[in-house]
Design brief:
By secondary structure, the chain is an all-alpha fold. It is about 75% helix and about 0% strand. α2 runs antiparallel to α7 (about 140-170).
Length: about 450
């Protein structure tokens, strides 16, 4: 949807917050990409680790070694989830800064589900700790023990779906007028394909991490397991990474097909094609490893990790290109509306200043008080009130009509206002003004002509 179509379609166009960015935009974009990369790796390990713990523990009901395997994987979850939370602060703050209007608009439209992320994640975290630290005590109550990790897994699967729905919605301002809550936004194009892409990425990352984790020379594998061998477990983890990566080549094209045409550009294609090539190369290396013997299975592990790491970098960069392509026309409209609003405020301030000057010159008595009233008005009132027209609140001349001859009521309203009209926002109170300032302000307003 181009610039003209956005206007004709009556797309909601909010005003931006007229504040400068705290750093150059290119630097914030770079930090967003880098910090999100670090964050998403630990999120992948947290989600994938929780799922594998659940499946291993269920299988451990019949085979003791799988219960031990579940316990070993569970030990990594609490660490990875803590890192995921800590590393998620930076990208969240940066995306709030760069895309304030879009991010908060999407938040408002997804409503309670977005707010529910914090209590949901908190509850899931609280489940993982007793699940891990009370392992031995819960051996006689396997139903409860497995239910705890199952509930944590379900929450860890649902929270990313909420987040992806919200992030996807911010890219489509033209849909804001038609979306009526979380489930309405959930079924917009691209949400579910991106979600499955995330799940498969989590399994790939977890498979590779556990391949390394159980392959360390210092890890006492033989002392912990009696039937499973180190080679068996590592091969299963490599197989998981291989299958999850292979499935990405099915989900990837679906993601591209569900993207709106406005998001596709040559710069995006130039990022995607090397990612595909590197992904195929990583699959080839994984296949070689799976068909190798125990001593050679990890020969290409570093190359696999490096190749897939570059794929993740390219994919995250591609998401930023998609975001900019999607929001570009609408950002122009927001900038236009913001400039118009600021011009209107400036014009109203000039009008108010001229009226003030004229008022002061025509009045000899109480000159000092009126000058103070002018100063108080400019500092506290002129952003919302002009002399003759409405900006945010009513014009000054309307105040004169209401409070003429009753400056005490006007002062009482300024100090502690209420709300009288539905089409006007709530006015903030000004209890910080002293009596002299209130007297001067009231005189200045009531003598405006």
């Amino acid at each position: 949807m181009n610039f003209l179509n956005l206007i004709l379609a009556n797309v909601p166009v909010p005003k931006d917050i007229p504040l400068p960015l705290p750093a150059p935009e290119w630097l914030l974009v770079g930090l967003l990409i880098f910090s999100f990369l670090v964050h998403i790796i630990f999120v992948n390990l947290m989600v994938g680790g929780t799922l594998l713990t659940f499946f291993a523990q269920v299988k451990g009901l019949r085979e003791k070694d799988y219960d031990i395997l579940a316990h070993e994987i569970a030990k990594t979850i609490t660490v990875n989830k803590s890192m995921a939370v800590v590393m998620g602060v930076a990208p969240l703050l940066i995306i709030n800064t760069l895309y304030t209007v879009y991010f908060y608009s999407a938040n408002a439209l997804t409503g309670l589900f977005w707010i529910a992320i914090v209590p949901l994640v908190t509850f899931a975290f609280l489940l993982t700790y007793p699940h891990k630290y009370l392992w031995e005590k819960l051996q006689n109550n396997k139903g409860l023990h497995i239910a705890m990790i199952a509930a944590a897994s379900a929450i860890f699967l649902f929270v990313p779906l909420i987040f992806l729905t919200n992030i996807n919605l911010m890219l489509y301002p033209e849909k804001w007028g038609t979306v009526s809550g979380f489930f309405s936004a959930l079924f917009l194009p691209n949400v579910l394909p991106r979600y499955f892409h995330f799940i498969f990425a989590s399994l790939t990352a977890t498979g590779l991490f556990l391949f390394y984790f159980f392959g360390r020379e210092k890890y006492p594998f033989e002392k912990k397991f009696s039937t499973l061998t180190r080679f068996d477990v590592r091969k299963r983890m490599y197989s998981l990474a291989f299958m999850a990566t292979l499935l990405q080549f099915i989900v990837g094209p679906v993601i591209l097909l569900t993207l709106p045409s406005k998001t596709i550009s040559w710069s995006l294609i130039q990022v995607i094609l090397p990612g595909i090539a590197l992904g195929l190369y990583a699959l080839y290396l994984l296949w070689i490893g799976l068909n190798s013997n125990e001593s050679e299975i990890g020969a290409n592990f570093k190359k696999v990790v490096f190749s897939l790491g570059l794929v993740v970098v390219l994919m995250v960069s591609g998401r930023h290109i998609i975001r900019e392509n999607a929001l570009g026309p609408h950002k122009k409209l927001v900038a236009m509306k913001t400039n118009q609003y600021e011009d209107k405020v400036k014009a109203a301030n000039i009008e108010a200043t001229l009226a003030v000057d004229s008022n002061i010159k025509s009045l000899e008595k109480g000159k000092v008080d009126l000058q103070l009233g002018e100063k108080v008005f400019k500092s506290n009132c002129s952003a919302c009130h002009a002399v003759k027209e409405k900006i945010v609140g009513p014009p000054v001349l309307e105040m004169v009509t209401i409070y003429k001859g009753n400056d005490s009521k006007l002062k009482e309203w300024i100090k502690n206002p209420g709300k009288r009209r539905e089409n006007y926002p709530q006015m903030p109170g000004f209890p910080q003004l002293n009596e002299e300032e209130l007297d001067s302000l009231a005189q200045f307003i009531l003598k405006t002509k």
